[in-house]
Automatic annotation (TrEMBL), chain A:
Assembly behavior: Heterodimer of SAE1A or SAE1B and SAE2. The complex binds SUMO proteins via SAE2.
Organism placement in taxonomy: Eukaryota, Viridiplantae, Streptophyta, Embryophyta, Tracheophyta
Main location: nucleus
THIF-type NAD/FAD binding fold domain: residues covered: 14-309
InterPro entries in the cross-refs: ThiF/MoeB/HesA, ThiF_NAD_FAD-bd, Ubiquitin-activating_enz
Keywords from the named record: Acetylation, Ligase, Nucleus, Ubl conjugation pathway
Any GO BP annotation: protein sumoylation
Homology family: Belongs to the ubiquitin-activating E1 family.
Protein name (database record): Ubiquitin-like 1-activating enzyme E1A
Pfam families per UniProt: ThiF (PF00899)
Gene Ontology CC terms: cytoplasm; SUMO activating enzyme complex
Keyword Secreted: no
From TrEMBL, chain B:
Oligomer and partners: Heterodimer.
PANTHER family xrefs: SUMO-ACTIVATING ENZYME SUBUNIT 2, UBIQUITIN-ACTIVATING ENZYME E1
Organism: Brassica cretica (Mustard)
Family: Belongs to the ubiquitin-activating E1 family.
Biased composition (Basic residues): 623-634
Keyword Hydrolase attributed: no
Protein name stated in the entry: SUMO-activating enzyme subunit
Length: 322, 634
């Protein structure tokens, strides 16, 4: 259909998944270019999944040096100090990922993601920001939206045993199967900025509490100039103060965002590997869907909480107010 | 780290876990267990690594192909967690060394298996050893994780799992209507007849025999004469199975009254006089000089490259003849001992071609080699992401089991499309089924013709196939009718073999209507009773086995509301037959087990909220899904 046939080698390697999504989807995957930043546990899981799936290329950005925390949930880093000394997390992960599938081009891009020009993002079909700051997420999302080509934009964040995924596919057309018939569908996604500024009052009450809690933590880290996860129980009073203000601004009662949940999110700074595997798996599945144009994508938030075991999709846009 | 986390860590670090399976789920599971802090992991897998595993079993590399999965997975994980203890066993979990005592040393058993048989076996050993089991399965984007704790939740077999689909013999031998029927014919009958054990019973000519010629004559077709040219032999087989046999079947007008008549196909109408000149296959095939017999292939000789391409009748016929020739030219020694294997390229080519020619004859759409291989090999669709998610869910349940957090156990379903916003749907586990023959020892009922059916039929079709016993022993009262084991003397073995050939009513202790049999498996420590009911006739189409086993004594009508979990429809039945109060209690129980904040929420919005119903409806909607999911991994 589009482009050249899969090689014999590709057909043999990808046999079992071609049986799931078809040869056309596999061809599109092999031609896609993915940018990933912030490689902690969940993103490491995500990278493993898309490299195995056989995307065209993966570009890694993470200049941080390996520390105890990175070793904890990131299985791409061998715990051998001689091997990782002087190398960045992205460099180490690059070596491991290459090994998983020699047919995928894995490379490292140095520098600060948020400082990149709009043109930089044009090279990619998918951009994934892991554990990013509010400012970075907004800025990169806006740059992606300015491009003439559609770049699928994702953010992912894990705290304690909870995870959040955000998806922006802008105006997105896809096919879905309905009773053996293929139907063309279209979805319009709000930007990150829009999605996190939706007034709380009209949002249905059954919406995952994590949506609100994550906004509180995001604002806290932004205000205090903290890096992702740089917080402890000592910060609880400040966090609760921010929650109070946000609830007031949104004219909802303070019980809207449970304190116990906020406490969990700021104290659970060690990643919970099973939750990383789950959230990283869902994220990879969504990226594969978006690249192949097959199947209904997640719109526009996903939440997982190991405590109740639910993995929920939430559609949060200004449609509640209109 | 707060005290709760400390408790969790000490539960994890003190645990000794057994993983069964180091494949798609297993690789992900071993990695996540190691990252989560598990220190003592034992892993059993009998398989070796194949190329088609590498797209998801990320602990394996191309250089590992052919090596033990359990061992390579262990080595790979030790590289990023060098100080933990992982012990690998390259062995079948059904081996006798993995007995109840072996299982007893573990705190929890985690299954990442790909077949029903092994799952049932592990379930029984876990019940016998009283060790909790976390069970899992995936296919494509669907997956499930369930928790089985003796006496607390249902066991793996409380809801009967569908056994692999079987087809009536006559559909396969004379009236195929689907491509899968042609595949079964090509694989089980034609391939087995030509390349398999000559002494095996084979129905290939059954219908033709009835219609025409003596069996002597038809048998001879398959014999290769001393100096016969292989191509001529191939054409003779071709003409016999696709031409002559179809003509013979057509002569039976009764069969075709309400069916589309098949078209006989002869090689001279499809293929040129002689292929040898055109292809010069015997010379050419030396070009593919591969020592590995699994790599011998007819496709390159015919210029066929793409396994996803649909071949026409002529191409299929060429592949048929070439593949047959290659078997004789390159793999002569194996002929007579071959069974179909999805990883045997030449076998897949032959079966694809034969199935397609037959499909053409019967007006059934043809399929590519890629598709045919999937059907013939019962290949389970698999992607890395679902396995990774399921492995994460297994570890979460394993931790709950270790902490003995019984009211938090959940079975979780991974869905492809969200149901009530959920992609991961947790459901409270069911209670043990009081009429489960495995964990509740309820007698089974077997309807069988006691005069016609032999003990062998009972052993093969019921005790092994249906009850999944490995080393069975059958008793009628005090009389031992049959047993298997290494420690039997020759006289006993001869005795049992003689019994196998007797009909039930002719046995030393005759089994007749009303007899109660005891069937045991000493390794699985499973014993169950079978009430025998004599029945004269069975419907060949609907009851091809000639006997019917059902899992409970009382009829549904007399059993009323009290969870009449019947055999086949069990999953759906549970909720449909549940009475009002039961639902209410289920719901109440759920909200009690929810975390504090969610509970408050539920109370607050009771009135506006139809989402609350979710908790009630879950088991039903999900059960259906569960059935579907379970169905694909027989």
């Amino acid at each position: 259909m589009d482009g050249e046939e899969l090689t014999e080698q590709e057909t043999a390697l990808y046999d079992r998944q071609i049986r799931v999504w078809g040869a056309n989807a596999q061809r599109r995957l092999t031609k896609s270019h993915i940018l990933v930043s912030g490689i902690k546990g969940t993103v490491a899981e995500f990278c493993k999944n898309i490299v195995l799936a056989g995307v065209g290329s993966v570009t890694l950005m993470d200049d941080s040096l390996v520390n105890e925390e990175a070793l904890n949930a990131n299985f791409l880093i061998p715990p051998d100090e001689n091997a990782y000394r002087g190398k960045t997390v992205a460099e180490i992960c690059c070596d491991s990922l290459k090994d998983f599938n020699p047919m995928v081009l894995v490379s490292v891009e140095k520098g600060d993601l948020s400082a990149r020009s709009t043109e930089f993002f044009e090279k990619f079909d998918v951009v994934v920001i892991g554990y990013g700051s509010l400012a970075t997420k907004k800025a990169v999302n806006e740059k992606c939206r300015k491009l003439s080509k559609r770049v699928a934009f994702y953010t992912v964040d894990c705290r304690d045993s909870c995870g959040e995924i955000f998806v922006d596919l802008q105006d997105y057309k896809y096919t879905k199967k309905k009773l053996e018939e293929k139907v063309e569908c279209e979805l319009n996604f709000p930007s990150y900025q829009e999605a996190v500024s939706v007034p709380w009052k009209p949002i249905p009450r059954r919406t995952a509490k994590l949506y609100f809690a994550m906004r509180v933590i995001e604002v806290f880290e932004e205000n205090e100039g903290r890096k992702h996860g740089q917080c402890s129980l000592l910060d609880l009073p400040t966090v609760l103060e921010i929650k109070k203000k946000l609830c007031e601004a949104n004219t909802v009662s303070e019980s809207h965002v449970p304190d116990s949940l906020l406490e969990r999110l700021i104290t659970g700074t060690i990643e919970f590997p099973p939750a990383c595997a789950i959230v990283g798996g869902i994220l990879a599945q969504e990226v594969i869907k978006a690249v192949s144009g097959k199947g209904e994508p997640l719109k526009n938030f996903f939440y997982y909480d190991a405590q109740d075991g639910k993995g929920v999709m939430e559609n949060i846009s200004n449609s509640f107010t209109s | 780290m707060d005290t709760q986390q400390q408790q969790q860590q000490s539960a994890i670090q003190g645990a000794k876990v057994l993983m069964v399976g180091a494949g798609g789920i297993g690789c992900e599971l071993l990695k996540t267990l190691a990252l989560s802090g598990f220190h003592d992991i034992h892993i059993i897998d009998m398989d070796t690594i194949e190329v088609s595993n590498l797209n998801r079993q990320f602990l394996f590399r191309r250089s590992h192909v052919g090596q033990s999965k359990a061992k390579v997975a262990r080595d790979a994980v030790l590289r990023f967690r060098p100080h933990i203890n992982i012990r690998s066993y390259h062995a079948n979990v059904k081996n006798p060394e993995f007995d109840v005592d072996f299982f007893k040393q573990f705190d929890v058993v985690l299954n990442g298996l790909d077949n029903l048989d092994a799952r049932r076996h592990v379930n029984r050993l876990c019940l016998a050893a009283d060790v909790p089991l976390v069970e899992s399965g995936t296919t494509g984007f669907l997956g499930q994780v369930t928790v089985h704790v003796k006496g607390k939740t249902e066991c793996y077999e409380c809801q009967t799992k569908p056994t692999p689909k079987t087809y009536p013999v006559c559909t396969i031998t004379s009236t195929p209507t689907k491509f899968v029927h042609c595949i079964v014919w090509a694989k089980e009958l034609l391939f087995a007849k030509l390349f398999g054990d000559k002494n095996q019973d084979n129905d290939l000519n059954v219908r033709a025999n009835k219609a025409a010629s003596s069996s002597k004559e038809t048998e001879d077709v398959f014999e290769l004469a001393e100096d016969e040219d292989i191509e001529q032999y191939g054409r003779k087989i071709y003409d016999h199975v696709f031409g002559y046999n179809i003509e013979a079947a057509l002569s039976n007008e009764e069969t075709w009254k309400n069916r589309r008549r098949p078209r006989p196909i002869y090689s001279k109408d499809v293929l040129p006089e002689s292929l040898s000149q055109k292809n010069g296959s015997t010379q050419n095939c030396s070009a593919t000089s591969v020592d590995d017999s699994a790599m011998v292939s007819a496709m390159p000789l015919l210029g066929l490259k793409n396994p996803q391409e649909l071949w026409g009748l002529t191409q299929n016929s060429l592949v048929f003849i070439e593949a047959l020739k290659l078997f004789f030219a390159k793999r002569k020694k194996e002929i007579g001992h071959l069974t179909f294997d999805k990883d045997d390229q030449l076998a897949v080519e032959f079966v694809t071609a034969a199935a397609n020619i037959r499909a053409e004859s019967f007006g059934i759409p043809l399929h590519s080699l890629f598709e045919a291989k999937g059907i013939a090999g019962n290949i389970v669709h698999a992607v890395a992401t679902t396995n990774a998610i399921v492995a994460g869910l297994i570890v979460i349940e394993a931790i709950k089991v270790l902490k003995k957090d019984a009211d938090k156990y959940r079975m979780t379903y991974c869905l492809e499309h969200p149901s009530r916003k959920m992609l991961l749907m947790p459901v409270e586990p069911f209670e043990p089924n009081p009429s489960c023959y495995v964990c509740s020892k309820t007698p089974l009922v077997l309807e069988i013709n006691t005069q016609k059916s032999k003990l062998r039929d009972l052993v093969d079709k019921i005790v092994k196939a249906k009850l999944g016993m490995n080393l069975p022993l059958i008793m009628h009262g005090a009389s031992l009718l049959y047993e298997v084991g290494d420690d039997l003397d020759d006289i006993m073995v001869a005795n049992y073999n003689a019994n196998l050939e007797k009909s039930l009513s002719e046995l030393p202790s005759p089994v007749i209507n009303g007899s109660i049999l005891t069937v045991e498996d000493l390794q699985q420590e499973l014993s169950c009773k079978i009430n025998v009911k004599h029945r004269e006739e069975f419907d060949e189409e609907k009851e091809p086995e000639g006997m019917v086993l059902s899992g409970w004594t009382q009829s549904r009508a007399t059993n009323g509301e009290s969870a009449s979990t019947s055999n086949n429809e069990s999953a759906v039945e549970v909720t449909e037959s549940s009475s009002g109060p039961e639902i209410a209690s289920k719901k109440r129980k759920l909200s009690e087990t929810q975390p504090e904040n969610h509970k408050r929420e539920t109370e607050n919005v009771e009135s506006e909220d139809d989402d609350d119903l979710m908790e009630i409806e879950n088991p039903m909607t999900v059960s259906k899904k569960k059935k579907r999911v379970a169905y694909t991994f027989p």
